[in-house]
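User: Run a structure prediction on this.
Assistant: Running it now.
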Amino acid sequence: MARRLTRREFLGTSAIAGAAILAAGCGAGAVRQPSAAAVATAEEAGWPVLPSVKIHVVYVGLGGAWPKPEFDAKAEVVKFQAYLAALQQRMGDVEFVGGELIANNDKAAAEAAAGIGRPDALLLVHLAFGSGRPLLALVDTGLPTAIFSQPFSGHDWMYVPQWQKAGKRVILLASRDYAEIDRAVALLRVPARMRQSKLLLVGAARGTAPACSPAKVKEQWGVEVIPVTAQQIIEAHKAVDLAAAEAEAQEYWIRPARKIVEPSRDEIINSARLFLATRNLMIQHGARAITSSLCMGKPAKGCLTFSKLNDLGLVGACEGDMDSTLTMLMFGYAFGKPGFVTDPLFDVSRNAVIHAHCVSSTRMDGPVGERAPFMLRSHRDDNHGAAVEVDLRVGQQITCAKLVNLDTLLLSAQKIVEIPDFDDRGCRTQITCEVADARKMLQNWGSGTIEKEGMMTLLHRVVFYGNHVDSADYLAQLTGMKVVMEG
């Protein structure tokens, strides 16, 4: 039978146990996730607050031969509850509900599954040996599910790969490290957050055919695509007070810039005015993301606008690229870091890919990270307007990704090895990245997933700080994506 813990028990567990578990989870191997401060950054600027993601927790197993006859399941639950209470506070946008402790048998699992209600996701903590069927009964609720199973909890883990092959949306964290729960919870948020998201599309959609269909985007990911015309942008730009634009330009761009090379003060102010106009439109529509196929035209180039949106933990993507925009939205929710949409080039002599574009976030570590040094430059294609050249971090591990056709994630792990200086050619922000096999990646670019679309669709990739390949594979299991490794 199930025993439901009270809220007092859930949140008020032993301070000693909590301190011990936190120490275990925050060591060198801990997976860092967005803090409550990061969650609040965009909301403080006026964007709507998203509701907390509700994750129902069930503890499965009272004891027995495994892990040991004298196993105290209730004491074990207290330790986990202490960790989850602290994690809820750290993350700031999740709420753990439930907390039943059930026997690892079919009847108890059926009762628990029937009483779960409508949370956003499930976290199952496997405590003691069973047949696997009770865990499956909970997985079969259809909710995105993570199972945390410590060594010697039993052998129920061995069934999970079979469930995954059958299309069940479940991941297994077979580990003694409680920090794995942080990673799982961050990923469990993603489907709910995508369903809560609105995306402004300025001009025509570009990308793979499914991604360019608002109806299919809504059906597959739950994201609402809202069309915006060029005239709406122009009118919003006119409505912004010039003094406010001057203050925005001075404080966010002119004063912090390491150097201003080509753009005039008026061009920078005009770009800041576009940011304020875009911000107002996004807040008006409750949108968390925007992409524009008109971003290199009037009333200003979109480079500074998109850079600051990404600094804030939102999404601004150029060239109407719906595939990259959805990738940035999804990875932002999962990892709390912005993406850098790039035009890749190859240098097989260095076993490297060069990523370049005239826009990049200055806070690639996330909205509460330090700003990277940057210069204000012109847009390189025509030497007009204001763009940003960001000094990204040499030595940084990165993940290169792109969601295509709404169901396939192109993925590779890379490392920044230099900021190239190649006769001032190409886009302003550039990084040279070491890859596993540049020649193989070049020959297999897109891995057959993008064939009939235009140049931008085949070309663009999105760079994120950190190696997220393993976590992205978990995310694919939770959302039904296929993963294709490039290179």
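The two ends are 51 Å apart (CA to CA).
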